[in-house]
């Protein structure tokens, strides 16, 4: 049962990041830049303790990379700014839809020959994302949509960079450590305009120290028992969990456009993943 527990808790943590970020930024309890650097530094501290605690069990020299750290920072920064205008479920849908589409595209660029079902699935998923924002193209939500797409692409790059890691926990920890100069730079550049509250800071700490650091650790444990196809599919549950969390904790309403867009995007991506499985 452990793989199921690890997977379930990791997915809840991923969705929790969306809920925590929306709670903090949607209510104006903290500014996006402060949320980002507090989240990253909190993750660094927690991962440092985890790494020290498991040091006797880790013999790998895998220390991550600056490319992975840069992708992680871009993901975290655009994630925060996107949630100023996006609802919880919409943000998670765009994020993980973009992640999966980017990883699928990377497979195409690496020489994978797409079949008709894969092209149809990609078209279906993209139509869902377009439908999601088309009624509001003239509003600030378009900027939130674009920022979250960038965040999803960055997270996909981070995942692809670390796909061959011999010790994912160690690599992720050191990637977090390498974001320190970026986090400090954001702090210095925005300190005079920072908007902080006790609740906002606590939400950022929870996002970085619990939902991110511990969530990623649980996810790496789960990946030991999941195939690549299974890992891709189960992540598609995150937008649904996040939307439910937004309804429960943020008081957001479930709108039909979100339901339709979710069906199109998730259906399209699942179609591509199933098509890839048939070609293996």
UniProtKB/TrEMBL annotation:
GO cellular component entries: plasma membrane
Keyword Cell cycle belongs to the record: no
Main location: membrane
Domain of life: Bacteria
Subcellular location: Cell membrane
Membrane-traversing stretches: 36-54, 66-84, 90-109, 116-133, 145-164, 176-194, 200-219, 226-248, 254-275
Stretches assigned to the EamA domain: 143-273
Keyword entries, A-Z: Cell membrane, Membrane, Transmembrane, Transmembrane helix
KW Membrane (keyword) present: yes
InterPro entries (UniProt xref): Diverse_Substrate_Transporter, EamA_dom, EmrE-like
Membrane topology (UniProt): Multi-pass membrane protein
Pfam families: EamA
PANTHER family: INNER MEMBRANE PROTEIN YTFF, OS03G0707200 PROTEIN-RELATED
Protein name, entry field: Membrane protein
Source species: Arenicella chitinivorans
């Amino acid at each position: 049962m452990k793989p199921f527990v690890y997977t379930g808790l990791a997915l809840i943590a991923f969705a929790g990041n969306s809920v925590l970020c929306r709670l903090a930024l949607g209510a104006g309890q903290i500014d996006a830049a402060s949320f980002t650097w507090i989240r990253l530094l909190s993750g660094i501290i927690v991962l440092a303790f985890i790494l020290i605690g498991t040091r006797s069990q880790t013999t790998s020299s895998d220390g991550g990379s600056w490319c992975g750290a840069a992708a992680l920072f871009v993901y975290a920064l655009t994630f925060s700014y996107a949630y100023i205008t996006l609802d919880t479920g919409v943000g998670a849908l765009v994020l993980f839809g973009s992640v999966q589409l980017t990883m699928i595209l990377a497979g195409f660029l690496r020489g994978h020959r797409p079949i008709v079902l894969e092209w149809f699935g990609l078209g279906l998923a993209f139509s869902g994302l377009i439908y999601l924002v088309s009624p509001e193209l003239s509003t600030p939500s378009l900027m939130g949509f674009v920022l979250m797409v960038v965040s999803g692409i960055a997270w996909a790059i981070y995942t692809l960079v670390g796909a061959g890691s011999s010790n994912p926990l160690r690599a992720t920890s050191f990637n977090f450590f390498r974001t320190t100069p970026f986090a400090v730079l954001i702090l210095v550049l925005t300190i005079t305009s920072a908007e902080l509250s006790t609740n906002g800071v606590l939400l950022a700490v929870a996002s970085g120290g619990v939902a991110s650091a511990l969530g990623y650790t649980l996810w790496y444990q789960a990946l030991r028992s999941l195939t690549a196809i299974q890992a891709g599919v189960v992540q598609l549950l995150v937008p649904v969990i996040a939307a439910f969390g937004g309804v429960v904790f943020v008081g957001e309403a479930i709108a039909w456009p979100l339901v339709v867009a979710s069906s199109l995007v998730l259906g399209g991506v699942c179609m591509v993943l199933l098509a890839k499985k048939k070609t293996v």
